[in-house]
Amino acid sequence: MRNLRVVVCGCLGAWVLCASVAEAGGNDALIRLLIKKGLITEQELETAQSELASITPSTTAPAAAPTPTYPALKLSGRWALGFLQSGASGSDPNGAFRIPDAKLRFDVSPDATNTLVTRLNLNNASFNNLDYVYLESKDFLPWLKEQPLSLTTRIGRVKMDFGEETWSNNSIEGALSSTSAANVSGHDEGLQAILTWKTMGSPRLSLGIFNGNTNGTTFTDNTGPKAYSAKVALTPISSFYLSSSFFDSRALKTSASEFSIGGVTTAPSGAANWSRRAWELDGRYDLKKGKAALNPPVFTDSRAYLRGAYGLFGDDAKGGTDRNGDYGFLEAMWNIHPKWYTAARWSILDFDQEASATLGGITTVKRLQRYQLGGGFRWSERTLLKGEWLWDRESGRTSADDAPNNQLSLLAASQF
Fold first, then answer.
1. Cβ contacts of 200 within 8 Å, gap of 6 or more
2. Which site from 24, 231, 341, 407 is most exposed, i.e. has the minimal number of CB atoms within 10 Å?
3. Can you name the residues that pair with 392 across neighbouring β-strands?
4. Dihedral, CA atoms, 189, 246, 270, 215, nearest 10 degrees?
5. Total domain count for the chain?
6. Is residue 253 part of a domain?
7. Within a domain: residue 31?
8. CATH number for position 185
């Protein structure tokens, strides 16, 4: 009986020892020796290991998130290429294979707070300029970490935060391949500050001060007053977004503005000094709201959305004729299938009284209405095949109305 107890205790000890050694990395020579001495069989070892695994809690710790290392580089960009065919007065009357949009962006972060952003404009397969060069700094004030508030500043050449179309007015990120009639947008050297409250509705305030005038020779401000912009945004319910924007160029003398309305940036005819002001209200409603961000709209995972904008502008001309007007658009997009979507937009740019402008190469236009119908196929998560038919309707011209400049576009587009 004593010998039996010794054998049993030896076997149990061997089981525990072998299981522990095997779990820790294994010692095959020791296990083979115990089996050779007859203290444990291979079947008994397997049984002991199985039982030990069932009663021993896992000690494997969850993988820790990788710690960012600095300096860090992030590369991103977008491109669109394909075939465009327009009427006789359009940009491609003979039909052409083109690369209407190509951008390459570098984000270099020397630390966790600051990022230097540089973006190359490579439209039409040519180096055109650096349309972004700015330093972005996030939450650099220590006391903000204890507040439901986030602060981001940007200094350098930035895109003005005015309206909503400006953040997707390209052939890739917009649901349609072309912009609205007004396409209000601008880039300029200046300083922006963006405050976001981490509370219900996610209120957001954006303020900017800029040089205001175009000066591509010295890249400095050749008029004393600075332009400024302001924008407030709110999401009162998860499916509804609302924003209001304001811009004032201040005095520009005879220089062109960096703030474009319908592609018009130059002073009104005869003006010895002029200034531009604009105000815009934007709204968007999502049906069966998804989780994707509002921008870019083409990558929304909502079932559908309806968005629109209405704006007023005034070009105050000293010694010339004022150029005032209003503009707006209505746009809808519907994801009819996870792979397919369709979209449509109506937009207008209307000048008051005797004012007119050259829009898209068509002279003395008083009113431009644009109708767009298109859709796309989601080739992959970030690559699309897009098609669009665009009708432009000009009116109020001293020459014949409605120039032949409608356009068909068939594009492959992607961002990374």
1. none
2. 24
3. 370
4. 0
5. 2
6. yes
7. yes
8. 2.40.160.10
Question: 204: which strand partners?
Answer: 196, 233
- For the whole model, what pTM was predicted? 0.81
**Same domain flag for 21 and 94:** no
| 39 close to 14: Cβ distance less than 8 angstroms | yes
Q: Which domain holds residue 83?
A: 77-102+126-415
Domain co-membership, 231 together with 286: yes
Q: Is residue 352 part of a domain?
A: yes
Q: Provide the token pair at 66.
A: 């990788």
- Gap between the Cα atoms of 104 and 77, Å rounded: 4
Say how many residues make up the chain.
416
